[in-house]
Design a protein that fits this description.
The protein has about 250 residues and is α/β, with parallel strands linked by helices. The protein has a single domain, classed as TIM Barrel (Alpha-Beta Barrel), CATH 3.20.20.70. It contains twelve helices and eight strands. An eight-stranded parallel barrel has the order 1-2-3-4-5-6-7-8, surrounded by five helices. Strand 3, helix 3 and strand 4 form a beta-alpha-beta unit. The longest helix has 19 residues. The protein starts with a strand and ends with a helix. The structure holds 1,3-dihydroxyacetonephosphate. 1,3-dihydroxyacetonephosphate binds next to strand 8.
Length: about 250
């Protein structure tokens, strides 16, 4: 079975002490994970070292950065490089979140550069894609997401692609309480997998983990994750609530 992942995206929330407490509460109550299940915490940069330390010895748990820069080092004041993340032992990096695309003008091409350097240093990108409301209302979501995949991923070899986790996050469902129905999620996930299959072959596509993100809660996770092409979730608001995130972990296939 391909990897099933419950990924917490804390975004720009919590103090250090609050983050430490949240991690401790979740880790102490988290169920035993099967070998195909993983829990990932995408925490703010200043908490990465703390979080990496907190998960030591916890099988199936990893830490992600929420972003990185596209260059290895140099005069880029305020940016964080992939070699820095690697030196902390960080396993994943979230790239292309819609908030970064919208507020920081990150393009598909720029994201391709960030993906390349992440892979070069052995970090797994959690590549986010997803359409805004107007595109969904015009029923153009497949073309929109298809282009995001094409411009950021299709230069990769099949071996490289297999290091990528994809997160489908329809923008209209993020932080709005308006979840995509499990049918809408399944439909898009199946479309993404079919595109990957056309590009890289069925065997490669069948192994790619595709997460759903957008108002995932403890109460709707099982229904979403029960869909055949939904391999877990990338969770914002509910990942800050211990009982909610625990329920999401328990809902993994
Ligand atoms: P919410 O779960 O708060 O809707 O956020 C989703 C998200 O953006 C995760 O990256």
């Amino acid at each position: 079975m391909r990897q099933q992942i419950a990924a917490a995206n804390w975004k720009m929330n919590l103090t250090l002490a609050e983050g430490q407490q949240l991690l401790q509460d979740i880790l102490s109550k988290s169920p035993e994970l099967s070998s195909h299940q993983q829990v990932v915490f995408a925490v703010p940069f200043p908490y990465l070292a703390m979080a990496q330390e907190a998960i030591q010895g916890k099988a199936g748990v990893a830490i992600a950065a929420q972003n990185c820069y596209s260059k290895k080092s140099g005069a880029y004041t305020g940016e964080v490089s992939v070699p820095m993340l690697q030196s902390l032992g960080i396993g994943y990096v979230v790239l292309g979140h819609s908030e970064r695309r919208e507020y920081f003008q990150e393009s598909n091409q720029f994201l391709a550069e960030k993906i390349n350097i992440s892979l070069e240093y052995g970090l797994k990108p959690i590549f986010c894609c997803g359409e805004p409301l107007a595109i969904r209302e015009a029923n153009n979501q497949n073309a929109f997401v298809g282009q995001q995949l094409q411009e950021s991923l299709y230069h990769l070899s099949a071996t490289q692609l297999q290091q990528i986790v994809i997160a489908y996050e329809p923008i209209w469902a993020i932080g709005t309480g308006k979840t995509a129905t499990s049918e809408q999620a399944q439909e898009m996930h199946a479309f993404i997998r079919s595109q990957l299959s056309a590009q890289y072959g069925e065997a490669v596509a069948a192994n790619i983990t595709i997460l759903y993100g957008g108002s995932v809660k403890g109460a709707n996770a099982s229904e979403l994750f029960s869909q055949p092409d939904v391999d877990g979730g990338l969770v914002g608001g509910a990942s800050l609530i211990v009982e909610d995130f625990l329920a999401i972990i328990k809902a993994l296939k």
